[in-house]
Amino acid sequence: MIFLRTGLGLNGTTSVPGEKQPEVPEKESLKKEPMNCPNEYHELKTNHLDVQDLHPAMTKEMITIFRQKGTDYQNWINYPDDKDCRRPCIVSPSTLKMDELIRPSDDRNQWDAYFNALVDAPEEIGDPRPLDLPRGLDYHKLYLRKLGTEKDGSLGWNKYHGRVAHTAIFADNNVRLDGPQWSQIAQAHYQDFFDIDSLKYVFRMTVVNEETHTFVAKVLYPRYGIELAGDCQLRPWLYDTDDYREIMGTPLGKAVGALVLGAFPRGTRRVIQILTWQFDGDLQMRFDISRIPSAKNN
Q: Phi and psi (nearest 5°) for 39?
């Protein structure tokens, strides 16, 4: 068995990505190649077709809200205070540690780790080497769950499914967990193994969040005459454009924005671009994080 660095293992031993490991309970491989042309985004060009027909589930008012919220997150991330922002930042720095989830002082706050192992890279990203991501069993995969109360008063599971490798956080799939909570747990998971200053990428794999998926597949791609399911390209959405701000204003975009705000001092890092592609017809997303040029020494 492989254990969290927090000492989750029954024998008290720990393992970190990069070490050779014994047999793992779940075998994953890179046998399947994605349908996109991975990591070729620098050659992509799109032709704007000005398609205005919107999906019935996505009104112009909703898109305007996405753009406004994305602009808020862009500005909150950029500026160390709120003087240049439309409204005060709603995200505070996160100090959550993995040990506080696994072994809290109050047992009622405990999360159950029901999968905890080193595995391969997600097959959805294709060849990890162009991003300087590792190959082999260098990705720590963790499933956490905790019972919570639904709006109707019934009990349901809050779940975190993710993996981390040096420079990258992966949300394996979008199970039921709100954005702010996901961002804090994902940050704590990464920091259990690596210095947060090394983080460069946040992947949202196999997107099932309805608002985010509908916006990208039924509004953003058709805007450029593209159909997500049949597209074979890695699509870049560049910083400080309407497309970028709209993505950042979707639920998954806001969650990544909250992670950046929780992990780094404001005005030192930003999401410089967002990449989207499809794997087996499912939407995949990558958010690239970089230092803000004026904050090189931070």
A: 65, 20
